[in-house]
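Re: the multi-chain job from yesterday

Posting the exact lines I submitted so nobody has to dig through the queue logs.
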Amino acid sequence: MLDKLKEIEKSALESLAAITDQAALDSWRVAHVGRSSPLMQVFAGFGKLSKEEKPVVGAEANRVKGALESALEEKAAAVKNAALAKSLEEEKLDVTLPGRSVHIGRLHPSTQQLRRVLAILAEMGFQVYTSREVETDDMNFQMLNFPPDHPARDMQDTFFIEADGRSDNPILMRTHTSPGQIRAMREHAATNPQNPPPIRIALPGMCFRYEQITARSEIQFNQVEGLAVGKNITFADLKGTIADFVRRMFGEGARLRFRASYFPFTEPSAEVDVECFVCGGKGCQVCKNSGWLEILGCGMVHPVVLQNGGYDPKVYSGFAWGMGPERQLMLRNKINDIRYFWGNDVRFLEQF
Amino acid sequence: MKIPLSWLKDFIDLNGLTPEDIARKLTLAGLEVDEILYVGLPMPVYKEGEKHEFKTNGIAWDKEKIVVAEIREVKAHPNADKLTLLDLFDGQQEQVVLTGAPNIFHLKGAGKLEKPIKVAYAKEGSTLYDGHADEQVLMTLKRAKIRGVDSYSMVCSEKELGITDESDGIIILDDDAPVGMPLADYIGDAVLDISILPNMARNANVIGIARELAALTGRQVRKQVDTYTGKQAGNGTRNTQHTTPNLQPVTDLVEIEITNPELNPRFVAGLIRNVEIKPSPYQIQRRLKLAGIRAINNIVDATNYAMLELGEPLHAFDYDVLAGRVGQVGNLPHKKIKISTRAAKDGEKLTTLDGVERKLTSTNVLVCDEKGSLSLAGVMGGSESEVSDSTKNILLEGAAWNFINIRRTAKQHNLPSEASFRFSRGVHPSLAELGVKRGLQYMAEWAGGTIAPDLVDAYPLKPKDSVVDVTSQDVKRLLGIDLTLEQIAELLTRLEFKCQITNNQLQVTAPPHRMDIAEGVIGLADVLEEVARSYGYDNIPTTTMADALPPQVGNPVHEWEEHLRDLLVAVGLQEIVTYRMTSPEREARLRASESYVRIANPIAPERSVLRRSLLTSVLEIAEKNARAESIALFEVGSVFEPNGSDLPFEPRKLAIVMTGSRTASAWDTHSAKDSPHFDFFDMKGRLELLLSGLRLPDISYTAAGASTALTSSRSSFGSANHLHPGKSAEVKVSGQAVGVFGELHPLAKEKFEFGDSPVIIAEFDLDLMRKLNPTYGIKAVPETPPIYEDIAIIVDDSVEANTVEALIRQTGGKTVTDVRLFDVYRGDQIGAGKKSLAYSLTYQSDKTMTDADAAAIRNKIVKRLEQTIGAKLRS
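And the result, structure tokens for all chains:
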């Protein structure tokens, strides 16, 4: 009987070794450890054995059963792993096929840039002030120290609006957001005319110039101005504030320089150049080989403007600066044609 | 303005400063140098990775190879009629050079020249511009045989040396040019192209730039020669006494009457007799050309040269023409020439130098004699009294004019000139006298002749030099720097301000060439700007504002719109920003408006008015992008509604356009063409998300129909004729109509170039929406399990889904927490004129519900539907 058990074990293990798939494994299980398998027959015939044989055969049969079961378990795991490996092998994708896209929405690049600028300004305490796009000559020019026929008006070619009987104060498309300076100052001053409160505002919005539409010039463009007015504001503060802004806008290492300049509504006035961030100042197409990019104009608010806003220039001082989000984008993203912005070709817009 | 450095050196020592150093100093002080043009001087060489500072252009002349030479004989070329051979000495050896220059050709075969001709000579291997190319192309001189004669060097033209863009012959240098000297040492130059800002008009001249440089470098401006005798000319011309006291003074011959001193504060005239009109010395011509002015003859050149140098535009009259007009003959004292200035009469005519007869208005100012008008003051001379080749005697005018008047006149007649450029920005009257003296002096030097003694000078309105008081405290308060009065005085004195310290304040008097310094609080700002420039902006520290931070109040309107934009982007819409200017015809494609805000000076007919319809702008962009598989665009912006002759209204609007395929195509799905198109419900779904994102309560949608006209104050959407009558709806929030949307009417769509897919549009009035009160509460997330149940009912086709849902909700009460339509079916199974609506209901209460609880409610609902709208439960 012990020989028979050995024989059972041997043949079962041999046939198990040859198995490679689940179906064969299932039939092996029925044939070798199933109810009618030779091994189970041994257990079934147990009663017929002698008293001496019983423990010996019993122990051996149990051993064989255990051996077959653990061999089966081992084989089952091997078969499963092999099957998985095979299917993983077969499921290989061409990962270079394109992904499945979805339509998404985006903000216009100008809005994105306006937000970047306004977010920095907000953190610096400059809050958004918006005002109208169609203005009077008074607000757009005269209050800002551009008298009629002043040569500085040549710097801002203007679209005028047809309106009867307004020859002394025509209606026009604002050429800059600066009329908002007067409106904001007057609103603030009205709250306490004897002692107007300090102001720190950002003025974003669309401006208009009479230009031909070319790769370099447009009839409309966004501008953002910053304005600070108070009893204790200096040109050195202007420099410090601009330096802070430029660092946050263009990076920690951005070098800048202040050049004397002229705007009727500020004095002293300056242009600010930042070291070309495309070439690092070595000279390239973008900076026209100068190493510097002109990014904003600024200055101390002109006494006439303070006066027109209801702030006494003997007591108050302030500074203002202005910049163009589209220009910033053109520099940063190497956009060589300003017409892309209002052309709104989705193939352009999708890149932002 | 273009300034040759050689000219600048007449007035300031520039030793130790490179052209870049000079350009940098000027740029930082507000005189921005746009370009440095090298015309002979060595150009900076930038190594790889080295910083550039300025845009540079031009050519350097090799000192070894390009030198001054003299032509000793002009011979015929043996094999070419149009070429000559020049015997030439370059300071070291004799050379034979071939040339085809027309301005030397007449000397061919003349034998040895009595007086050698000085020329610019380039030896073999020189790099020059190609004189025959249209553009500036560099070339190197190589040995060649031309018609059998060896050619290896050349005599240069201005074009070849980069002095001008074109030239018609070789350069003939002044007689005193030193033979053998490197040309770069003799006339090598660099030209700074400087932008002159409106407040810097005083510097639109060589002396002005020299004065600024002197202040910036702490150097001195060389004494300006204003004696008008014995000026030491720039390059070694002679010292001569040109006036002859014995002659009749100009004051005996000419008198001046100024009728309106506001328009003409000063008029100065001087006389020079017996000039010989011929070309100016080459050095003068070269400087004028480098400055961008054509060289004409010695008299015209003298007026231009003096103007560029000093800033005072001058006008030369042919004195004999003027004398003839009043019957004066020869040198005899007859009737004086009476020159007067006055405003023109409306309709008066004058033929200007350019041969154009101009119709004048009373804004224009005329210079006249007793016979009539002579010139358009400050802008352009008249043709009759113009200097001609036969002119002998010159009356030279230098005047001061009202800058606004000149500006208007130059614009009116479209006559931008060097003179009007300066006069329209303000020229100080003190320069009139200096200018005339300088002009006469140059004429005497270059054209011979004798200057008549004295000047006629009418000066009825002498401007007062501004006086401003400055304290150290002012400087601290506005510039943020600590300076003593002495330091401030030092900075201003460099710019020729007169400074006097008294009682802790500085009294500053503006120099007599400046028109841009006011008095009082404005004058203080003017002077502090000069302090800052002189101190150097770079030297002013950077500080953090110490002033109190104003209260931070935010800008709710702006923030609301930004939030709106975010929501629109979140539902898959692309933002666009379009032009405010359009035309009525363009808007009429969608719907015509009766009145517009009109541009008085449009750049083009298609941009003649301000838009009234934001939607049309967005549709135009959608049309432009029509080839994209899917278009979903929005714009938030103003439209402009006329308000009589007052400022227009600028209501804020939102417009949305969607067309094309609903889903993005991919390689394993349908092609874009097969994808379902955006339809009414794609828009509606987005609007529902938008409105819930804005937290607006009580939203309803009602069929718009052709008769719907949404009007409230200034928020008209016009009639809804452009919408498909069956596929459009009006949106109400709390009973207030705020927008319309739907499919573009097929007839409206025909007017645009769109593809097959429907175009879905929406328009909202943001001013109305913004004023609605949002609700911010939320519903608690239930803890008990819900019961879901589907019911399908059959109703007449005319019953709106809205009605059914409302009945279900009403009947189900608060236990029915959600009613969702998941299927609409029409077909044979249910019969014609009927539709099946299938709803998924959610039952939910505080306690765990049983199926029986739900069934009870459902039965109530079905019963109600049966009774109210004749619905049948579909089995």
